[in-house]
Amino acid sequence: MSMLPYLRAAVRPALRRSTPVQSGYDATRDPSASSAVVDCAVYRDGRRAQGDRLTPREALRRVREDGGFAWIGLHEPTEAEFAGIAATFGLHPLAVEDAVHAHQRPKLERYDETLFTVFKTIHYVEHAELTATSEVVETGEVMCFTGPDFVITVRHGGQGSLRTLRHRLQGDPQLLARGPSAVLHSIADHVVDGYIAVAAAVQDDIDEVESAVFAAPAKGVARGGDAGRIYQLKREVLEFKRAVSPLLRPMELLSERPMRLVDPDIQKYFRDVADHLARVHEQVIGFDELLNSILQANLAQASVAQNEDMRKITSWAAIIAVPTMICGVYGMNFDHMPELHWRYGYPMVMAAIVGSCFAIHRALRRNGWL
Fold first, then answer.
1. Is 360 helix (H, G, I), strand (E, B) or coil?
2. Contacts from 16-24 at CB under 8 Å and sequence distance 24+?
3. How many beta carbons lie within 10 A of that of residue 332, not counting itself?
């Protein structure tokens, strides 16, 4: 029987369950709390086992005695808070260090019987108007330890909560019955779906900037004023790219290479995640190239506007040069100069100045300089 309907129902945001299953922990960590654990539960046959506020040690003991798997969720644990959990589940020290200190690039590593996966979460920051200092995307991290009978998720940052995802999965026992690899797939799909939504929002910002660059400037507004906004948007797209590009290889490995910790039926659906990720990666690369073109066009427009201004200044300088030259000639202090004592000398000089200036102005205007 195909699992696609169950997977789609579990991981797509549009199909949210209206009655979430309540857990023993709040999904948002209280800063004043002494523990980083936001939820800890045991799942058997796809259903959450009874028991509130289990400790990770108790959850592992129940799993080892009665079967199923444990899912422990943490938010920004310290070394001391994570040390006990790491010892209980036998996590590798290098992976533990990465999970505690965060700021890791997306990756997939295997330590003995544990898969360690790092995802970068992306959140689009709403803004009324894109400026040269606007924050467009905000990043976080989700680390996932996947073992034969446990899943440990470590989240860093204020975004990317997995509470809604956990509730949706709990509403689909047939999917959860597949074990920890089903949770890993759902987290990967959840993260990549977030990329798709952010890519659509960033596309709108790029379209807005592109329209502003090629639109006719308002009166009194100089060309080239959008360079700051374009550069800021390029920085945010680069941050987006750092989250998407390194994740391509881990998704390929999860979808193509057989792994003992990944259910073969679940592995097939990692290909869908990999395809969506590849599409987002192509979009992000296209964003960067498009912004480069928009920035070059913006700078070219500014250069053309400056050239037009210089042509106008040069044209008026040429016009002013005529009366300056004539007045300079008749300003010389010589006793014997023609027309100095002639009755019509002054009107003739003024007529020559006006006629010459008018002829030059007409010629320059005809050639597009004015």
1. helix
2. 16/164, 16/168, 17/167, 17/168, 17/171, 20/164, 20/167, 20/170, 20/171, 21/48, 21/167, 21/170, 21/171, 23/48, 23/166, 24/51, 24/52, 24/53, 24/54
3. 7
The dihedral of CA 137, 252, 181, 104: what is its sign?
negative
Please, is 139 exposed, middle or buried when counting C-beta atoms within 10 Å of its C-beta (0-12, 13-18, 19+)?
A: middle
Place of tokens 């060309």: 223
Question: How many CB atoms are closer than 10 A to CB 262?
Answer: 23
Q: List, for residues 15-55, the tens digit of each pLDDT value.
A: 333 333 333 333 334 433 346 888 899 999 889 987 667 88
The candidate with the shortest Cα–Cα distance to 246, out of 92, 113, 109, is 109
Helix, strand or coil for residue 107? strand
Q: CA-based diameter of the chain, in Å?
A: 124
The predicted model scores a pTM of 0.75
Count how many residues are written for the chain: 370
Cβ contact 173:184 at 8 Å? no
Distance, C-alpha 281 to centroid of its chain: 11
Please list the residues that pair with 116 across neighbouring strands: 109, 145
Please, which pLDDT band fits residue 110 given cuts at 50, 70 and 90? Answer: very high
